[in-house]
Design the sequence.
């Protein structure tokens, strides 16, 4: 079963790509600066930014198609959900010890990704409905 990429789906995927790409560039280029402000490890910031580059490309790829498989959208939702869980997990487990700005940084980006996850889950639900 496939999902037709209408303007809503295209915009959700493209906006996810835009925010992921900008965040990735900021974390790669500004890892040291952001680390100094947030007390998050610069290596974590840098490599998280690197991971976001192919993710951005994949989201852009799907946003430009006329349709995509439900499985691809399920994967997008799952990866976004895992990012949210990992983001909160590094705080809860003490894997990192950021300052208050760092905690806010992690929570803000997790909240943004959660919003995309919810919107993309809505696309999945809508595509499961009979036309």
Sequence:
């Amino acid at each position: 079963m496939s999902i037709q990429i209408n303007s809503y789906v295209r915009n959700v995927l493209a906006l996810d790509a835009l925010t992921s790409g900008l965040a990735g560039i900021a974390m790669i280029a500004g890892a040291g600066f952001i680390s100094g402000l947030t007390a998050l490890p610069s290596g974590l910031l840098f490599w998280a930014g690197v991971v976001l580059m192919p993710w951005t490309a994949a989201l852009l790829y799907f946003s430009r198609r006329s349709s995509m498989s439900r499985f691809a959208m399920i994967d997008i939702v799952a990866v976004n959900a895992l990012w949210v869980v990992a983001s909160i997990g590094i705080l809860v487990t003490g894997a990192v010890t950021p300052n208050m700005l760092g905690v806010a940084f992690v929570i803000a980006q997790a909240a943004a990704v959660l919003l995309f996850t919810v919107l993309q889950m809505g696309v999945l639900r809508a595509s499961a409905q009979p036309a």
Residues 2-128 form one domain. The chain has a mean pLDDT of 96. The radius of gyration is 16 Å.
